[in-house]
Amino acid sequence: MDKNEIYSLLDSCNIKYEVTNHKAVFNMAELESVNLPYPDYQAKNLFVRDNKKRNYYLITIKGDKRVKLKEFAEMQQLKSLSFASNDDLMKLLKLDPGSVTPFGLLNDAERKVILFIDEAFKDGLIGIHPNDNTATIWLKTDDLIEVIKRHGNEIISVQI
């Protein structure tokens, strides 16, 4: 799904959202130069895999947080984790680097990627790319979770 297909899906589900268009950003440091209306709700997304390349995960956290992959893996009882390759990102989520977002899971035909979402977003707003790093879409976290659940990917709420 591309950006416009994401918007159409949200419209068809009667989900309220707001879009902030901006220059292309490829990491959180570049995003700091963009004037966002809700910076405290901006998400950071990490696409990782286990050491055997059998299991893939998307970790979505508040933008100001850091994740130590070794500690995260231990807490979630996972095998050791490392960042997935750009090829894996394209193959599984049909995304380019810098555009990683939970909406990419809607491109995961095999529903192979598990989403870990930071509990800090619970019952609030979240800002993520709509599969394109030239915009940030703001919506209720519960609405995002519902869309991903309907698609069929597993979602695990975590405290980070």
Structure description:
The protein has 160 residues and is α/β, with parallel strands linked by helices. The chain has a single domain (3-158), classed as Alpha-Beta Complex (YbaK protein), CATH 3.90.960.10. It is 25% helix and 27% strand. The chain is built from five helices and eight strands, in the order αβαββαβαβββαβ. It has helices spanning 3-12, 28-31, 69-75, 86-93, 141-151, and strands at residues 17-21, 43-50, 56-62, 81-83, 113-118, 125-128, 135-140, 155-158. Strands 4-2-3-5-8 form a five-stranded mixed beta sheet. The protein has a three-stranded antiparallel beta sheet with strand order 1-7-6. A hairpin with a 6-residue loop joins β6 and β7. It is globular. The two termini are 29 Å apart. The relative contact order is 0.24.
CATH C-level = Alpha Beta
The named CATH superfamily: YbaK/aminoacyl-tRNA synthetase-associated domain
> Overall mean pLDDT score?
93
Overall body shape: globular
Order of helices and strands: HEHEEHEHEEEHE
CATH overall fold name = YbaK protein
Record the strand order, biggest sheet.
4-2-3-5-8
Radius of gyration: 15 Å
Unreliable parts: none
> DSSP strand (E) fraction?
25-35%
Helix count, DSSP H or I runs of 4 or more residues: 5
Write down the oligomeric state.
Answer: single chain
Named at the architecture level, the CATH assignment is Alpha-Beta Complex
Give the N-terminus to C-terminus distance in angstroms: 29 Å
Structural class: alpha/beta
Give me the secondary-structure topology.
Layout: H1 3-12, E1 17-21, H2 28-31, E2 43-50, E3 56-62, H3 69-75, E4 81-83, H4 86-93, E5 113-118, E6 125-128, E7 135-140, H5 141-151, E8 155-158
Parallel strand pairs: 3-5, 5-8
Antiparallel strand pairs: 1-7, 2-3, 2-4, 6-7
